[in-house]
Amino acid sequence: MKFVYFAASAAAALAAAPVAAHAQHADHADHSAHSTHGEARDSLKQNAEAALVAYRDALVTRDEAAMRALFADDSMVFENGKAEGSFAQYMEHHLGPELGEITEFTFTNPTLSVRMVGHVAFGHETYRYRIALKDGREIERDGVATSVLTNEDGAWKIVQYHSSSRAPRPN
User: Fold this and answer.
1) What is the pTM of this model?
2) Ordered DSSP codes for 124-167
3) DSSP code of 101?
4) What is the pLDDT of residues 94-121, one digit of tens each?
5) Is 71 exposed, middle or buried (0-12, 13-18, 19+ CB in 10 A)?
6) How far apart are CA 123 and CA 85, in angstroms?
7) What is the pLDDT of residue 26?
8) What are the tens digits of pLDDT across the range 150-166?
9) What whole-number distance in Å separates Cα of residue 65 and Cα of residue 39?
10) Which of 17, 19, 108, 170 is the most exposed place for a label (fewest CB within 10 A)?
11) What's the average model confidence in pLDDT over 66-76?
């Protein structure tokens, strides 16, 4: 239910953003506050980006506790066309068992962009990853991910995460 409220709030924020920004701009003649507001906004964006990089780093090191700390309790995870449930559920029935079989997890050529809308951050990532398994198999994939983050008690939490991947294709 929290997510339904969140989604409705995010949609309303998206619809009102240009009007609210224009109204705020018209409301004051002194523009000295813009640089301070912009700096705070840049800091929030950088911190949201850092949370997504921290998730990627935790995958590389297979640090379950670090991963769990980055997701909201009522998060929603989607991977390759499947709704996995909350991150805790995803860790329990999907990612957790896989982590035990992985000997090496690397990312190459990651890209990350974050867009702020109000107090919500929307992330978009592309990457290639390679996983080495205990049984000697290696898996290489091109992947994309989108994330929705909110700031909870001064920390960015991932509330929705969607990733998909495919075998690399020749250029």
Assistant:
1) 0.77
2) EEEEEEEEEETTS-EEEEEEEEEEEEEEETTEEEEEEEEEEEE-
3) T
4) 999 999 999 999 999 999 999 999 889 9
5) buried
6) 19
7) 38
8) 998 889 999 999 999 99
9) 31
10) 170
11) 97
Q: Which helix (H) or strand (E) holds 168?
A: none
**C-alpha span between 121 and 147 (Å, rounded):** 8
- Count Cβ atoms within 10 A of the Cβ of residue 124 and give its class: 0-12 exposed, 13-18 middle, 19 or more buried: middle
- Residue 68 class from Cβ within 10 Å (0-12 exposed, 13-18 middle, 19+ buried)? middle
Give residue for tokens 């590389």: 60
Instruction: Please state, in angstroms and as integers, the Cα–Cα distance from residue 140 to each residue in 106, 129, 145, following that order.
Output: 10, 6, 16
Q: Which runs of consecutive H residues, i.e. helices, occur in the chain?
A: 2-27, 33-61, 64-69, 87-90, 96-99
SS3 (DSSP) at 32:
coil
Report the relative pairing of strands 120-133 and 102-117 from DSSP bridges.
Answer: antiparallel
Rounded CA gap, 84 and 69, in Å? 18
